[in-house]
Amino acid sequence: MPLLPYPGMAERLIAEDETLRALIAGVRLHGELQLPDLQSLASERPVLVELDPHVPVRLHETLVPRGMYHAVLADGATPADQREGAAVENTVWTRLRRLLGEAPLDGETERQLVWREYQRALFHADAGQRDDALLAVKYAMQLQPDDELLQGLFEALLTPNEDGERSGPIDTAPFRTYGETPSPDLD
């Protein structure tokens, strides 16, 4: 997404894969991914998305975790689809953490891991999967324990809803500023 405004990038992508034409046209017209374009493309072939601020929250209804990325489901995602995907995703992330071990990470690797875990936590928090969100945010906090947004998200995930239960989605809007960069100008 951040590379689409680069001169010639959109045209090159379309030349390499004509099926991207409608998706790219939608991004150019609206400034962000559009649900019908994503689902239409997903009906033709697998579509994987990396979560970041360029993926609007409203698109989460069609996404399921698929390893390190999220797959677009042409017919939309059910809570069962998302739970099943989360179980596989947690296995993949646990394996990655085990491979990394306790060795100190270089700054960029740590930053990328925190960023990905944070995005994962927001996705699961939006879906009401608080336990999966907590797993992700706890790992990010192991890497950056003093980060105020991570701490705030952790506390929000532990806060009971109006029924007194620690379940259901939370409002993630206050946490969607972490590491954000301005959206590119697509004109």
Which features would summarize this protein structure in a list?
disordered C terminus, 51% helix, 5% strand, 3 strands, 187 residues, single chain, three-stranded antiparallel sheet, globular, mainly alpha
3D structure, described in words:
With 187 residues, the chain is mostly helical. It has helices at 9-16, 21-30, 35-44, 79-100, 107-126, 130-143, 148-158, and strands at 48-49, 63-66, 69-72. The chain has a 3-stranded antiparallel β-sheet with strand order 1-3-2. A hairpin with a 2-residue loop joins strand 2 and strand 3. Helix 5 (107-126) runs antiparallel to helix 6 and helix 6 runs antiparallel to helix 7 (148-158).
Summarize the structure in short:
With 187 residues, the protein is mostly helical.
Which helices and strands occur, and which strands form pairs?
Blueprint lengths: L8 H8 L4 H10 L4 H10 L3 E2 L13 E4 L2 E4 L6 H22 L6 H20 L3 H14 L4 H11 L29
Antiparallel strand pairs: 1-3, 2-3
Helix pairs in contact: 5-6, 6-7
Strand order within the widest sheet?
1-3-2
| Terminal CA distance | 14 Å
Unreliably modeled segments: 180-187
Q: Provide the helix percentage.
A: 40-55%
